[in-house]
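thread: overnight batch results

M.L. [08:02]
morning all. the overnight job finished for the chain we discussed friday. pasting input first so we're all looking at the same thing
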Amino acid sequence: MINIGIYDEHKIMARGLQMILSQISDFDVIFFTDSKAKLNECIKNRSLHVLVINMHDTSIRNMNLIIQLSLANPKTKLLIVSYDNSEETILKIVKSKAKGFLGRDASQRDLIEAIYTLRNGFDYFNNSINQVVLNQYIHDYDTDPVKQNDIGNLSERQIEILKLWGKSYSNQEIADELFISVRTVESHKNHIMQKLKLKSTVDLVKFSIKNNIIEI
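M.L. [08:03]
and the structure it wrote out:
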């Protein structure tokens, strides 16, 4: 049996995916939830093979969620379903370390095939993007791992900002929380990236998790 979890902020959509997948004899949908707060608890202490996430946008909040889930649950393959199948969206999802993607042109058959493919240890990206370009991108990304930088390079204020950012606070929310300007928040984030010699916010999230700045 392939153990499957489903997360969708829209409860009716989560229920619809659950009904579709439950019809397959090899699939066991062990939970479906529309609550981000309950998601980690649903996964905890369960042997979950595939987590299907119906993602409605590629906000920093959602990208952080995918990264954190993939790092916290390396044995669980993340399959992202999204109406937006632009190249920019797909590349964001690849960088987030999700193992599968289905765009708006995907069918029910594609969904089932994707789950089987992920369970067999392979990535699944349907015809939303040229496979050669995708494979090259994955290769380039995987051969440039995050360096182990010294957390001691960061000030207490910069660590405060990272913690709030890891909780999906916007720049404005961070500024309000710390009684500073949005421009100061942006400046701190740029200095953090420079100090740690990181190239992307994905790398920054990974660094923060590995150094226990962001709690999973």
